[in-house]
Amino acid sequence: MVIIQGGTLVCPDGLRRGDVALEADKVVRIASSIEPAEGDEVYDARGCWVFPGFIDAHTHMQCWTGIDWTADSFETGTRAAACGGTTTIVDYATADRGVTLPDALDEWHKRADGTCTANYAFHMALSEWNERNRADLAIMRERGVCSFKSYFAYDHLRLDDAETLELLESLKPLGGTLCVHCENGTLVNALQKRVYESGIHGPEGHPLSRPDVCEAEAVSRLLYLAHLAGDARVNVVHLSTKLGLEAIRAAKARGQKNIFVETCPQYLLLDDTCFLRDGQDGLEGLEFVMSPPPRKPADRVALREALVNGEIDTIATDHCSFNIHGQKDRGRDDFRKVPNGGAGVEHRPALIATTFADELGPTDLCRLMSENPAKVFGMWPAKGRLAEGADADICVWDPSVSWTISAATQHQNVDHTPYEGFKAKGRARLTFVNGVLAARDGEPTGAQPGRYVSR
């Protein structure tokens, strides 16, 4: 057995001091004191919080955009995740136009199986709506996929409103959740052209071409469609604006109950001044080109308040890493050509624990980054809780460690981090995945115990 001794346990019913025993891939005992037997592995957790492993329910690993592969494979991305305390990711498998859902899922399994340090599950993104895809939704459910994605932006991915409504109606009897990228793609296309033709070509043009109204309109439209579909289950991904938040509040006020809200560290920590930083190489600001972009300071303040007040259900990363050199720098003179995406899967727990140290305690961190993701995406009660019988995914978190985030020391396979120089307080001392020690003190052990999570 593995015995974790003397920590503060973050349990579903609150905090308690005690020990945890792991055997094979399960938590087998929680008690105030567990006496080790000969041959047991014993780990000291005094001064630490013992969490159920963190879950990042929004990643894009080993993803082909049509021009580039993302910098992180499933191997490097899940290794980095475990180093930061995340034991499960939910990645977006994508069925491009002309590709069936089962074939797309097979391809994502081919990329991930046998390579992962952390566990992995898949959402299924649809880029077209037809009778074949409608029929294949049930096959996806049989194969452990209970959440799906559609887009209101990107011409090669987006569905129209009627198609989105039919998708919502088709998912409802299956108990499926639809995650939606909420930006008005028609407006974004027009505004990109307008901003570029006005003479703004650098990365500062990116947020100008995707204003808050583009998100808020799409959020409102999604929630009206979900209402029309009989209060279908929807997850608003990467919420970034105060206007979008107000649209969610309005839908809840009119009685919709199946609305789940995700935001990301970049919208809680950064704002659009990041695009104006001075640099020596002409590449400053490129690392922040992600969609949606970091917003106005007032948006950041509104989201932080909503998070503390319990209006946001989950914090994920939208980890979609591209190198500045050789990838993002192709758009240094045309922001429209910069691959959209940022890195964060390794640093999310430290960023949130540090920046909200005075507002969120360990039970809040557990709710936002472990318990709620497990509940929303069909992994509860095996994951997301520290309890006997739950999966042996554990993060032992040392809140006393001070360290600095840097691309030079990260395990994300990318040449930068949007959080370069961030002074973090707290770090994963031990990360167990399926009962196997996968990372210690932010460094990988070399084990690859991650496996597919059928939901």
From TrEMBL:
**One GO MF term, please?**
hydrolase activity, acting on carbon-nitrogen (but not peptide) bonds, in cyclic amides
**Essential cofactor(s):** Zn(2+)
Q: Any idea which residues bear N6-carboxylysine here?
A: K149
Q: What is the protein name given in its UniProt record?
A: Dihydroorotase
The entry assigns this protein to a family as follows: Belongs to the metallo-dependent hydrolases superfamily. Hydantoinase/dihydropyrimidinase family.
Q: Which residues cross the membrane?
A: none
In terms of CDD domains, this protein maps to: D-HYD (cd01314)
Q: Which positions carry the signal peptide feature in this UniProt record? A: none
Where in this chain does the record put each Amidohydrolase-related domain? 49-436
On modification after translation, the UniProt record reads: Carbamylation allows a single lysine to coordinate two divalent metal cations.
Gene name of this polypeptide: pyrC_2
Organism of provenance: Parolsenella catena
GO CC annotations, alphabetized: cytosol
A Pfam family it matches: Amidohydro_1
> Which keywords appear in this protein's UniProt record, sorted alphabetically?
Hydrolase, Metal-binding
